[in-house]
Write a structure and sequence with these properties.
Largest sheet: 5 strands, parallel
Strand content: 5-15%
Radius of gyration: 18 Å
Order of helices and strands: EHEHEHHEHEHEHEHEHEHEH
Helix content: 25-40%
Distance between the termini: 42 Å
Strand order of the largest sheet: 1-5-4-2-3
């Protein structure tokens, strides 16, 4: 069985027993403490999981104009995944300690590299523990180099130029995954300039989760996204956030809801606001 959106703790426990090729990756992280994720992993992780650091494995070097978490090249990312021991057709499961906000970045990036067999652990490590499954402090032995290589992307991206050109015609709607106050241009703490891309609408990524920390039911997610977008087809939607990370959470939620084909603006607000002359809006949409 292939898991390509979400996987439950019990499904993961079963998969670990019968699928030795499964690659389990802990993406725990904290934006304000760059070593917090590694410490959390060291203190206790799902047995067999390897740790991936957002800044090192899932981002490229920053130039001051390309955002806070620029994407690496597809080729560099493929090399990273092969070095982790990923084989061409192996199942990948990503999880974190933050409701999936970092695991979804890896989910999206693997799809960007053409790999469909990747899922996010629904509810993350908290759900794993709540289901009665054990943690470990042992680091797994390094795997041999995997056979993973690039295939045609399964997801779409847009550039700064694409998003700017879209403002006048508004053929595509931009969804911003940041907190409402940051969207309005208030209480900005991560980027030098506050506000949002003109014409964008706000969909806080945390709204994809229920009180139990797991993703809402597909039908509910669909109705919530349709209410914000006016029922636009997913192919006419662009997702962004502060740095291209939490927007992937919205893209995963949309996939769960049956809304396939939306694009990611990887540079997001941190790139947009660093461009000379980029138009900026404030207040509610």
């Amino acid at each position: 069985m292939i898991f390509d959106t979400l996987i439950s703790p019990d499904q993961l426990a079963a998969a670990r027993k019968h699928d030795p090729a499964l690659l389990l990756l802990d993406c725990s992280f904290e934006l304000t403490d760059l070593q917090a994720g590694q410490r959390a992993y060291d203190a206790g992780h799902i047995p067999g999981a390897f740790y991936l650091h957002l800044e090192h494995a899932l981002s490229a070097a920053k130039t001051g104009r390309n955002g806070r978490h620029p994407l690496p090249s597809r080729e560099a990312f493929a090399r990273t995944m092969a070095a982790m021991g990923l084989n061409a057709d192996a199942q990948v499961v990503a999880y974190d300690n933050a409701g999936g906000m970092y695991a979804a970045r890896l989910w999206w990036m693997l799809r960007w590299a053409g790999h469909r067999q990747v899922a996010v652990l629904d509810g993350g490590i908290a759900a794993w523990k709540a289901a009665g499954h054990a943690l470990s402090t042992d680091r797994p032995a390094q795997r041999p180099e995997g056979s993973f290589s690039l295939k045609a992307p399964l997801v779409a991206t847009v550039s700064y130029a694409d998003v700017r050109a879209n403002i006048d015609g508004a053929e595509r709607l931009v969804l911003d995954a940041r907190a409402p106050d940051r969207f309005r241009g208030e209480n900005e703490t991560m980027d030098p300039v506050g506000g949002h891309i003109p014409g964008a609408r706000n969909r806080l990524f945390k709204d994809n989760l229920g009180p139990d920390g797991r993703f809402k039911a597909p039908a509910l997610l669909r109705s919530e996204f349709d209410a914000i977008t006016g029922g636009r087809p997913a192919a006419r939607l662009i997702n962004q956030c502060g740095s291209g990370v939490t927007a992937c959470h919205n893209l995963l939620a949309m996939e769960v809801a049956g809304l396939q084909g939306a694009a990611l603006y990887p540079g997001s607000w941190s790139e947009w606001s660093a461009q000379p002359g980029a138009p900026i809006a404030t207040g509610a949409a």
